[in-house]
Design a protein that fits this description.
Helix content is 30%, strand content 24%. Helix 3 packs antiparallel against helix 4 and helix 6 runs antiparallel to helix 8. It is rod-shaped.
């Protein structure tokens, strides 16, 4: 604030009433590097009113300037371009219910107080590139008929684009959302670009419609993401952006990841299934597998109690068909366990002593492979307890081999 005050002292000062007088006369308002003293309230000007809006026929170009007081330009129809690039609003600013018939440029604008663009209508290109919103910002129920630019904008407090209509392409690339950002029930008729954006708080796209391509490449969601009841055609996002490592260890962070999605049980299931199909459409097959694996893990607590152990076995044995390495690891574990058993039990094969470890490993491996039908059964003459043990190991081999084939078919041979 000290820097702003110092800059204000060096600027030429003009009263807000001078701007209103220029607007009343229908003359273009053009100022650069000025300090506007007092509240700027459109209701103080004598202007015609049509459809409950003050009609402003002046082109407005106030750049690199500072508004010292409150700015209330709501329910106003700006018939000519509005250019406020590089200006600063020190107090609350309201443009609620206004109509911008031509280009509206708020690039590099700084809002120190709350700002409202609720129920605005932008009929031409609109730019808020590199704008800074230090307090809450509201754009709810606004209509953007052409391109809307919010590239590299910074929102320090909560933000609302609820029920907005974006009829042209919208660009939020590289923007920073430091608190909650809500796009609930927003409608994007064309492409929406949120690439490289950073969401620190909870970001909500609940019930939003993304009818064009939606780009979230390299976007980060620290506070969680709500995708309940969302509809989209193509959501360009990677599973890694939607998850965080479950383990802090650098060597284990890729083993298991926790989802950042926030939802109820019923909405969450739909959100995951849509994401899985979306990843498949985009060719991100590994992301689809990871999303499916996480979805199955998330739904386990809601399953009937008698089915949960079975579901856990399916997860642990082959990762619901998307972890082909697990059957191999389990095969190695059973090979090791049976080998130790054969070598440790005296008199099982040789009355005079135990079987050597190398011979036990060879026997166990042969039995496991015979269960897969890759080789013939070498111990068909076994009887009694030995027959039961051999049969058990062969059944384990058959089961794990079948799971391996299923998971390979789902992940490698598509």
């Amino acid at each position: 604030m000290a820097g702003k005050s110092q800059n204000s002292m060096s600027l030429r000062q003009i009263p807000a009433t001078l701007i209103l007088a220029e607007i009343e006369q229908g003359r273009s308002v053009e100022f650069n590097e000025v300090l506007i003293k007092g509240d700027l309230i459109i209701g103080y000007a004598s202007l015609p009113v049509e459809e409950k809006r003050f009609q402003v026929s002046s082109a407005i170009r106030i750049t690199n300037s500072q508004f010292d007081g409150k700015v209330t330009l709501g329910r106003t129809a700006f018939l000519e371009p509005v250019d406020l690039r590089g200006s600063s609003f020190h107090q609350q600013a309201s443009f609620s219910g206004s109509l911008f018939k031509s280009v509206a440029d708020f690039g590099n604008v700084s809002f120190s107080g709350e700002v409202s663009f609720n129920k605005c209508q932008f009929e031409d290109e609109t730019s808020f590139n590199r704008a800074l919103f230090e307090r809450k910002a509201f754009f709810s129920k606004s209509l953007f008929k052409r391109e809307a630019y919010f590239r590299k904008s910074i929102f320090m407090e909560s933000l609302s684009f609820n029920r907005c209509q974006f009829e042209g392409d919208s660009y939020f690339k590289g923007s920073q959302f430091h608190k909650d950002a809500s796009f609930r029930k927003a409608n994007f008729a064309h492409d929406a670009d949120f690439s490289s954006s950073h969401f620190t708080g909870v970001s909500s796209f609940q019930s939003a419609h993304l009818l064009g391509d939606a780009f979230f490449i390299d976007a980060t969601f620290d506070g969680g993401l709500i995708l309940s009841r969302i509809k989209y055609e193509k959501l360009h996002i990677r599973w890694k952006s939607l998850t965080r490592p479950k383990y802090r260890c650098r060597f284990l962070e890729h083993l298991e990841r926790k989802s950042k999605l926030i939802s109820t049980n019923s909405d969450g299931e739909t959100a995951y299934l849509l994401l899985i199909e979306n990843f498949k459409r985009l060719g991100f097959l590994e992301d689809a597998d990871d999303c499916y694996y996480h979805y199955r893990n998330e739904r386990r607590p809601g399953l009937p109690a008698h089915y949960r152990p079975i579901d856990w076995i399916l997860m642990a044995s082959y990762g619901y068909g998307v972890r082909p390495l697990r059957p191999l690891l389990l095969s190695a574990a059973f090979l090791f366990a049976f080998s130790l058993f054969y070598a440790a039990v005296p008199g099982l094969f040789n009355p005079s002593g135990s079987m050597g470890l190398g011979e036990a490993v060879n026997l166990s491996l042969t039995l496991l492979l015979s269960g897969t039908r890759l080789i013939d059964d070498p111990n068909s003459a076994a009887t009694g307890a030995l027959y039961f043990i051999f049969t058990l190991e062969k059944l384990v081999g058959s089961f794990l081999f079948a799971l391996f084939l299923i998971s390979v078919g789902r992940t490698i041979i598509r």
